[in-house]
Design a protein that fits this description.
Elements (H helix, E strand, L loop, with lengths): L1 E4 L4 H14 L4 E4 L17 E4 L7 H9 L4 E4 L9 H6 L3 E3 L6 H16 L2 H9 L17 E5 L3 H12 L3 E5 L11 E3 L2 H7 L2 E4 L13 H6 L4 E5 L8 H9 L3 E6 L21 H7 L4 E3 L8 H19 L9
Parallel strand pairs: 1-2, 1-3, 3-4, 4-5, 6-7, 6-9, 7-8, 9-10, 10-11, 11-12
Helix pairs in contact: 1-11, 4-6
Bound molecules: 1,4-dihydronicotinamide adenine dinucleotide.
Length: 329
């Protein structure tokens, strides 16, 4: 069985090859750099399945071309599949599978890394010491022990973040539309407004939906405590960036750590170091000393990429054998 992997990065090639050779010798793997779209879909001729990532265009037009090429399965090497026209895929008889979870702890650990980095000014300290500036100016942080962490969304990743905050000796409060029973011993569920009012650290771990779109806006920011730390490792559009900037200028935040932001499409995993950035909102965000942005790297640990490769290749075998299961979209 032949699988074509689009938008392949060096780490995809390394770990897919390693896992494929060890556990799935029946799968013939090919890697290409171009992103999947209606034009590059023609490259899939002769392959049984294709593998794509978050920024691929897997709309109806692409799926029509893939179907003409004889592709029987679309394997997303990520959890989200909002970029896939699943209905059209099913009409064409193309199976769509994904990787629902791959080391949620990796993402939770990155969320705490962002929180602690802005809190203790690690981004500034790193540069200061390299320049032989050993003063403490601008480096004063806040103790986390005894403070209140407010976790929005207590699914797989949010639950991990609750456990980490609990380990720091923080009081953990949370908001979710469903309570997670595994957290009942140390998490207090509260309303969203109460979470905004009581938290010293707010970390977002809910999906982007019509309801959660721009949940962090000037009204919610005004409800927050002064010197709050805000972390978003979920989806950029949970935060209204313009209004976040307004809140930062009001002096509301001790720090803001973002692994995702509204304008990230087009930037994610691209080297634009020689380009003049045209996105003024992101540039403005980056101009604040208490903001750290990473580029959708929260998932990126060795454990996560191995897990993604293993699940995707198992999805390939299942799709080719007509086996359905919890990874089906
Ligand atoms: P999950 O499905 O296990 O948990 C999501 C939780 O959010 C559920 O408990 C759900 O009830 C809750 N929820 C849904 N709507 C809500 C709302 N309006 N308000 C509060 N809670 C709400 O998902 P998981 O695996 O924990 O992922 C969470 C998010 O993390 C994903 O939606 C994705 O956007 C993001 N993510 C980011 C990655 C990165 O590398 N930065 C990697 C993987 C996921």
């Amino acid at each position: 069985m032949k699988l074509l992997l689009y938008a392949a990065k060096d780490y995809d090639i390394k770990y897919f090859k390693r896992v494929g050779e060890a556990d799935f010798p029946e799968i013939e793997l090919e890697f290409i750099e171009p992103e999947l779209d209606p034009m590059t879909a023609t490259l899939a001729k002769g392959y049984d399945a294709i593998c794509a990532f978050v920024s691929a265009d897997v709309g109806a037009e692409t799926l029509n071309v893939l179907s003409e090429c004889g592709v029987k399965a679309v394997l997303m090497r990520c959890a989200g599949y909002n970029n896939v026209d699943v209905e059209r895929a099913h009409e064409l008889g193309i199976a769509v599978k994904r990787v629902p979870a791959y080391s949620p702890e990796s993402i939770a650990e990155h969320a705490m890394t962002l929180a602690m980095s802005v809190n203790r000014h690690i981004h500034k300290a790193y540069n200061k010491v390299r320049e032989n500036d050993f003063t403490l100016k601008g480096l004063r942080g806040h103790q986390m022990y005894g403070k209140t962490a407010g976790i929005v969304g207590t699914g797989k990743i949010g639950a991990g973040m609750c456990r980490i905050c609990h380990g720091f000796g923080m009081k953990v409060i949370a908001y979710d539309i469903y309570e997670n029973p595994s957290l009942k011993d140390f998490v207090e569920y509260v309303s969203l407004d109460e979470l905004y009012e009581r938290s010293d650290l707010i970390s977002l771990h809910c999906p982007l939906t019509d309801e959660s779109y721009h949940m962090i806006n000037i009204d919610s920011i005004k409800k927050m405590k002064n010197d709050v730390i805000l972390v978003n490792t979920s989806r950029g559009a949970l935060v209204d960036t313009e209004q976040l900037i307004e809140g930062i200028r009001m002096g509301k935040f001790l720090g803001v750590g973002l692994d995702v932001y509204e304008e990230e499409t087009g930037n994610v995993y691209e080297d634009k170091s020689d380009e003049i950035m045209m996105h003024s909102v992101t540039s403005r965000l980056l101009s604040f000393p208490n903001v750290i942005i990473t580029s959708h790297q929260a998932f990126y640990t060795k454990e996560a990429v191995i897990s993604i490769s293993q699940t995707t290749l198992q999805n390939m075998v299942d799709a080719m054998n007509g086996v359905s299961g919890p990874n089906d979209c």
